[in-house]
Structure formats: C-alpha cells, structure tokens
C-alpha cells in the first residue's frame, strides 16, 4: 500500500496528524508534512505504508477535508481519493 500527499492542496487543518503519526505539523508553512517520503512530482510526496499502519493511513486520508491524501493498493489502484 502506498500513500501520496499533495502539499499544495493541504490547508493545514492537521486532521491527518491526529490520525497517523507519519504526518506532522509544519507550522512554518501552515501545512502537514509526510515523514519519510520523497517528492514524486512537484509538491506531491509519496511513501509506502508500513505493515500494521494501513488503517491509520486510510483514516488520515478520509479525514482530510480537501482530499490532499490518496491511498493506493499494491497494484496501483486508488482506494481512497
């Protein structure tokens, strides 16, 4: 499972931070950041979801009010917008 985070879309509500510890607040930017990720395109960061964290990742994506977080299964199919 993979997570993608679009930092440009993020509005800094930080619900993802409360749901999954892979996200943290960046108060200097007023946005969340996805730890241990790499930039895969301009402003979009991705990383693998560790085993045992799948549910937390899904909750983080579902709570984002602007859909800045997307979850993909191992075949690349998008599970959560």
From TrEMBL:
GO terms for molecular function: iron-sulfur cluster binding; metal ion binding. Keywords: Electron transport, Iron, Iron-sulfur, Metal-binding, Transport. InterPro entries: Fe-S_cluster_ET. The keyword Iron-sulfur applies. It comes from the Archaea. Gene3D superfamilies: 3.30.70.20. This is Ferredoxin. It comes from Haloterrigena turkmenica (strain ATCC 51198 / DSM 5511 / JCM 9101 / NCIMB 13204 / VKM B-1734 / 4k).
């Amino acid at each position: 499972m993979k997570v993608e985070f679009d930092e440009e879309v993020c509005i800094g509500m930080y619900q993802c931070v409360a749901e999954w510890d892979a996200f943290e607040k960046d108060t200097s930017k007023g946005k969340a950041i996805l730890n241990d990720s790499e930039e895969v395109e301009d402003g979009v960061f991705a990383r693998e979801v560790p085993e045992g964290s799948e549910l937390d990742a899904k909750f983080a994506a579902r709570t984002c009010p602007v859909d800045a977080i997307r979850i993909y299964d191992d075949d690349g199919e998008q599970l959560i917008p």
